[in-house]
Amino acid sequence: MSTDRQKVIKGRFAPSPSGRMHLGNVFTAVLSWLSVKSRGGEWLLRIEDLDPARSKRSFSELIEDDLHWLGLDWDEGGLEGKGECGPYCQSERSELYERALDRLTAQGLTYPCYCTRGELMATNAPHLSDGRVVYAGTCRPERLDKGCVEGKNVRATRLRVAEEEIRFCDGIFGETVVDLSSEVGDFVVRRGDGAWAYQLAVVVDDAMMGVTEVMRGCDLLQSAAQQIYLYRLLGYEAPRFVHVPLLCNEAGQRLSKRDGSLNMEALRKDMTAEEILGRIGFLAGLTECGKKVKLTDLLELYNENRLPKKEQIIV
Ligand code: GLU
């Protein structure tokens, strides 16, 4: 039997349904759609509703409505669950995450962590710009004095990282190197309350859904290293990563779902889909001016080499 069957190019958009999308979310969605569609690939929509406190079905419905309105149709996934790799909502995929975690545990790579947030923040370990700290490995079984944690709650399950540099070539940022132990530390794969960590879920999902290209905001560039590490431990082939600039307001803060004027509700009142696509095409370096453009025209113009090689674009 032939094993060298040409792999389908498959990209995905994986929003968290915790609010209405803003221009930054849509920027990423449009570029990832263009990237795979310009090469005859498929595009998948996965709902990342891991956090039950913040995720709402009504937001997932609005996300789908906004994508349709822009003309971005998905070949697989969504609330309807079209396709063979479902379910496509992370809240329904616990069993798969559980199996992956069991495989990591069987390799002796996970351990319970008892550190509270306060304890984590109080360590001398490097604090990262996103508010996390590089975990010092305090609860690694070989270091832990069992007596000290008796009666304490398990706060998380962590994955032991190797003393190793992960190298990968990002489609925009090029050669990227992340030293796992000094820049990341042992990271959380499951929270103490049972909620699955994004890093584990995203790898299980992208791998099992056959995703070959992950295009998303560059705030997740470092996460790609954690994910590549997990791909290897779970025996999966890592996809190609492309991290696009984040859209920011004039104060240099990335747009948030609270940035009222640039969320899809407000934008749809003032602009047509072609006008929004025009603005996105211009911000992405695909068009010379921000005038309205059709999605099919953007498809012709799409060229990854023209995307801005920067972390932020002020809008
Ligand atoms: N769910 C994440 C978000 O909305 C995206 C994660 C990813 O694309 O890997 O920010």
Q: Would you kindly provide a brief summary of this structure?
A:
With 315 residues, this protein is an alpha/beta fold. It has helices at residues 23-37, 57-70, 94-106, 117-122, 146-149, 180-184, 198-208, 221-234, 264-270, 273-283, 295-301; strands at residues 10-13, 42-45, 76-77, 110-113, 156-159, 165-170, 174-179, 187-191, 213-217, 240-244, 246-248, 312-314.
Give an overview of the whole structure.
The chain is α/β, with parallel strands linked by helices. β6 (165-170) and β7 (174-179) form a beta hairpin. It has 11 helices and 12 strands. The chain is 34% helix and 16% strand. The strands form 5 sheets. The protein has a 3-stranded parallel β-sheet with strand order 1-2-3, with helices on one face. Strands 4-5-8 form a 3-stranded antiparallel β-sheet. 37% of the residues are buried. The protein is globular, with a radius of gyration of 20 Å. Glutamic acid is lined by residues 14-16, 48, 202, 216, 220. Glutamic acid binds next to loops.
Number of helices: 11
**Based on CA inertia axes, which overall geometry fits?**
globular
Helix content: 25-40%
The strand count comes to 12
Going by helix content, strand content and strand pairing, the class is alpha/beta
| Mean model confidence by pLDDT | 94
Give the strand order of the largest sheet, numbering strands 1, 2, ... along the chain: 1-2-3
- Report how far the terminal alpha carbons are from each other: 52 Å
